[in-house]
Task: structure prediction
Amino acid sequence: MNKILPEGISPARFNQAVSKFKKIVGNSWVVVEEGPQLNSYNDRYPMREVQLHAPSAAVAPKNVAEIQAILAVAREYRIPLWPISTGRNFIYGGPAPRKAGTVVLDLKRMNRIIEVNEKHAYAVVEPGVSYFDLYRHLQTRKSKLWIDCAAPGWGGVVGNTMDRGVGYTPYGEHFLMQCGMQVILADGTIVDTGMGGQPNSTTRNIYQYGRGPSVDGMFTMSNYGIATRLGVYLMPEPPGYRPYMITLPREEDVELFTELLRPLKLNMLIPNAATTVELILEAAISVTKAQYHRGKGPVPDSARKKMMSDLDLGVWNFYGALYGPDPVMNNNWKVIKETFSQIKGVRFYTEEERGHDPAFNYRAKLMKGVPNLSEFNYVNWVPNGSHVALAPMAPVNGKTALEQYQLVRAKANKFGFDYLGEYIVGWRDMHHIFCPVWDRGDESEKRKVYDMMNELIAEGAEAGFGSYRTHLDLMDQVAATFKWNDNALARVNEKIKDALDPLGILAPGKSGIWPAHMRAAR
Amino acid sequence: MKPPRSFGLLISALILLINVGEVRAADQADRAARGEDLFDRWCQPCHGAGPQYPGTMALKVRLGEKRSVLLERDDLVKPYVEFVIRNGFQMMPPFRPTELSEKNIGEIWEYLASGRGKGNGGKSKDK
Result:
């Protein structure tokens, strides 16, 4: 098989660029030979041919100066680069680039925790710092600050924030909690956003908005620059913490529950990014499909009922937490229990009652910013499991919660899959995470998942459910649904792309944004 | 009687060999210690002992409870361990060279082979 190269680049030209990359970072930090090292940059859970996202090489700089030198070579030879921080959120494609042949710019070696400010409660980190790293660092120095982590604890603080991911503490909306971004543009210019635009600023990581246009958001989920440093707010450890779980026995209960939940969220009685988890995703933390259903297709209702009874679960399982001094927590718990007690059959669990359950256990960790990987137990739902996510947004609205669930579950079942999903409930919104699991060795299941996701994107958009984030294979399709007013938003995105990266060397295709010379082919 | 010169050389050679052996053993112990740290960082979050570890759950399903915790296993072999870390296996994703070098992977193997993780299976190492 011929080596995959960046589109339009001859082998000779590619080799010249690679030689220059080697001179910049050293031979051992350029991976170019076909083999396991290069394959480790592939998409682990592809829905289509893995070659569609196979890089031609990976180059791993240690600092900003090396990135600038790499960019100079990329501009000279027109080599596209796909920046990654830790590259370990595999559900969206992991470290793999959108377009085959793109060179991965692996920033894992840039792993300095530059500052922890205990007084003003923030940290400044480089892209290679994982949640595990930052957590461990704070623990070692006996910090009284919490991190907020996404479910993959080996994921990166910078990468997750730049992809507008979420965690589960009151600081769960990561983009809201970033402050002070450093990016390198395609031309090599280093930009500090916000107050960082002022030399010697004392508020670079304190006040987010700076003056003039706030450009931070423009660099997230985009391909306009490479984030090389980020300030993130850290939550002061509260005087008390009590995680809890609420189970609801019937599918339709999600409607009333969500209605009752909204004021508690808006008024911050439930301050954290809470989760309303459906039965199968919740059960899959502890059991496998084969324990309940040996046949093909989704688990039948009789088996779902048995699962609920065996594991003491509801069709819906809500996780939240109380934070603060005891009187505050006691009061809030009373309000929460009174509010939801009007749902017939509702049950409430505290950590004392349920802490032994692996699902409760890991949720309790996440809601206080203790990173782990336990959520991925669910990938064992079927042997040799694979997973992917689609994340439509919803308001915190009962009718929508039920309708969106029914739409997605019906689609999953139609294609022969179980619905695995949850609502992550923010302040006013819910991220609906749908994450089907299939046998990664089964080509026909792969194709079905891909077809299913495409149908969901199209039908979801018709129903007003836009997705905020998705896998490499689905980025164009999701982008195409943001088409209001003759694709006005896409056209703005392209104008910015052309202005900031006229040669189109940064992450072609990220979030459906392509450089000018690749647009005609789309 | 004065010992023959060759006898002295033999003793020196033996001492040297013992020293080399000691140095090698010490090297191995160092590598295993580094491997322990790497294991704790990269492997334990999936392969610790208990119901909350995805890798342990996967191995339990595939091989049974007894062979589900890596640190308790006696049947692992070096090429297999090294292969799986770099290539991944089934649901387990691979590790990139920026995360674990070939040397690091060897150190993780030394740790597994040393048996020093046995007994607690990483239970108390929730990082």
Notes: The CA atoms of residues 118 and 278 of chain A lie 38 Å apart. The longest strand of chain A covers residues 226-233. Chain A touches chain B through 46 residues (CB under 8 Å).
